[in-house]
Amino acid sequence: MPGVLAHAAGARVVVADNASTDDSVPLLRREFPQVELLLFAENLGFCLGYNRALEEVHATPDPPRYYVLLNSDVAVQPGWLPPLRQLLDVNLRIAAAQPKLLAHADPAFFEYAGAAGGYLDWLGYPFCRGRIFDTLEHDRGQYNDPRAVAWASGACLLVRAEVWHKLQGLEPTFFAHMEEIDFCWRAQNAGYEVWYAGGASVVHHVGGGTLPKSSPRKTYLNFRNGLALLYKNAAPSELAPAFALRLLLDWVAGLRFLLARNWPEAQAVGRAHWHFFRGFGYWRQRRRLARPHLQVRQRAGTYAGSVVWAYFVKGQKRFSQLRMTRDKC
User: Fold this and answer.
1) Helices and strands of the chain, counted as H and E runs
2) Is 217 exposed, middle or buried (0-12, 13-18, 19+ CB in 10 A)?
3) Beta strands 66-70 and 156-160: pairing type?
4) How far apart are the first and last CA of the chain?
5) Could you tell me if residue 57 is inside a domain?
């Protein structure tokens, strides 16, 4: 918080408290009285919590043009905000942008949650410049160039307020995980762009503050939301083959957990699929609402191949080893 206040570049600083049970609220009131507080009576989750908070911010007499979604485990660096804001000032088609995310524990490495901008393969699997699955690259300035991407990290996300409300914010049913990817995909389907600001804007992210890296709850959310992400946003001609193969690969992952006798993770995959199909009526309704925008289009940050095949079979662990045939940048 001291870093955020020191480098806010004139922005309002608002903390939304999701019914925390520690001393966060008294500490904020005591140590940072200049921070605006929004207190929720229950834990609304990452998605609905942000939606409710930004509804209240938007309802103020002077609503902002831009919002920054900033996780509480992010340490901003001097000069991080103006380059992000400048991108949206210059190009009205840009809906959202992220800085370079480096690991707080060792800033020589990119951070898992967003690295140098997010990409998607044709099955909807997310990866980043600087991070594919669990392989994190050293930051040597190799990804300092600003560019359009498929998605920007929700750990630190500058978003145009008009687009946020037009798209109705984050998908509340996701609760957490992949919600920013869904938002960015919807923005691209609506004709907007998503950008990575390059090396001019840098933050350090701890990561894993909500759930540990190895967690059945996180596995459940990732697998369930991954199916919903693809089903909601893929164009009709892309959906059937991609969805069928995605289901197959999910079952392979579940089988690997079983063979390793990791019962909680295997059960998480099964529950994810069960809950997705049990709630299929809801997801079908969400896809129906998005149908006017669902068409095959050249989207930045799209990999025509399978990142699973490239990583696990071909041994391509770094972003530079992938052939981005459909990346218009």
Assistant:
1) 11, 15
2) middle
3) antiparallel
4) 35
5) no
- Using one digit for the tens of pLDDT, what is the confidence trace for 8-24? 988 999 999 999 999 99
pLDDT exceeds 80 at position 212: no
Render the burial of 62-71: b for 16+ CB within 10 Å, e for the rest: eeeebbbbbb
Is residue 296 within 8 A of residue 144, CB to CB? The reply is no
In a domain, 277, yes or no: yes
Closest by Cα among 260, 269, 254, 186 to 221: 269
Domain presence at residue 35: no
pLDDT at 296: 59
Question: Could you give the number of structural domains in the chain?
Answer: 1
C-alpha to C-alpha distance for 54 and 264, rounded to whole angstroms: 36
**The token pair that represents 158 in the structure block:** 């500058």
* Two tokens, residue 321: 């080893």
CA proximity to 272, closest of 216, 327, 317? 216
Give the number of other Cβ atoms within 10 Å of residue 21's Cβ. 6
Going by the DSSP 8-state scheme, the letter that residue 237 receives in this structure is H
Number of Cβ atoms within 10 Å of the Cβ of 81: 25
Q: Report the SS3 class of residue 128.
A: strand
Q: What distance lies between CA 43 and its chain's CA centroid? A: 20
CA atoms of 2 and 62, how far apart (whole Å):
25
Give the β-pairing of 302-303 and 193-196.
unpaired
Question: What contacts 315, CB < 8 A, 6 or more positions away?
Answer: none
Rounded to an integer, what distance in angstroms lies between the CA atom of residue 230 and that of residue 123? 7
Containing structural domain, residue 262:
216-299
CB 117 within 8 A of CB 98: yes
Q: How many CB atoms lie within 10 A of CB 192?
A: 19
Identify whether 160 is part of a domain.
no
Which pLDDT score is estimated for 60? 87
Question: What is the per-residue pLDDT across 217-267, written as a single tens digit (0 to 9) for each?
Answer: 999 999 999 999 999 999 998 999 999 999 999 999 999 999 999 999 999
Question: What DSSP line would sit under 56-106, residue for residue?
Answer: HHHTSSS--SEEEEE-TTEEE-TT-HHHHHHHHHH-TTEEEEE-EEEESS-
